[in-house]
Amino acid sequence: DAGVIQSPRHEVTEMGQEVTLRCKPISGHNSLFWYRQTMMRGLELLIYFNNNVPIDDSGMPEDRFSAKMPNASFSTLKIQPSEPRDSAVYFCASSSTRIGGDTQYFGPGTRLTVL
Amino acid sequence: GNSVTQMEGPVTLSEEAFLTINCTYTATGYPSLFWYVQYPGEGLQLLLKATKADDKGSNKGFEATYRKETTSFHLEKGSVQVSDSAVYFCALRSSGGGADGLTFGKGTHLIIQP
């Protein structure tokens, strides 16, 4: 079975540019999570969706960040405009509450560098 | 709020040594507890989990017991291998129905020398 798929794996952009990160959760999973990993702050939850509905976005750092989940098989995390301090590895994870599971499965991450 | 505290390392051991990575947590109610492992350049993989007090999670020779009285979930392995070198994260998920995000510790970098 395919795991969580993220694209791109690496992204280098210049300050002020728009960045869009993409995630395809595991088929059948109904919860999706976006995390950010930095050396200074470790792993932080940014936002999560349940049945395509955003449940908690309190971790989104600023209005420059936005996330959408238009359907059960796709989500995006957008940063506009990007800043150097946004440089991090962004992980997407999915899980299923329908079968009572609370295990989150992580994608390989997108390493974002903002110059 | 929820929080997880773990030794950050790096922890350097020789092959076949005994491993303990301490993890303590603060949370309301009865959270689920997890250990994830991250190999270089990869995402996080679930290593083991426990969902209620006194449960023991185990996988690949690693074990951790959910201790509510000490709010701990220490990771142990009797004999480590070079291939166990990675970063290990302790995490919790709040109790209650539905999905919630995970709260992670800062991670412990483990280095096993041959």
Structural features, described:
Chain A is mostly beta strands. Chain A has strands at 5-7, 10-13, 19-24, 31-38, 42-50, 53-56, 65-71, 74-79, 88-95, 105-106, 110-114. Chain A is globular, with a radius of gyration of 13 Å. The N and C termini of chain A lie far apart (36 Å). Chain B has 114 residues and is mainly beta. Chain B has no helices and 12 strands. In chain B, strands 2, 5, 6, 10, 11 and 12 form a 6-stranded mixed sheet that branches. In chain B, strands 3-9-8-7 form a 4-stranded antiparallel sheet, with no helix packed on it. Chain B has a two-stranded antiparallel ribbon with strand order 1-4. The N and C termini of chain B lie far apart (41 Å). In chain B, 39% of the residues are buried. Classes of the chains: A mainly beta (115), B mainly beta (114). At the A-B interface, β4, β5, β9 and β10 of A face β5, β6 and β11 of B.
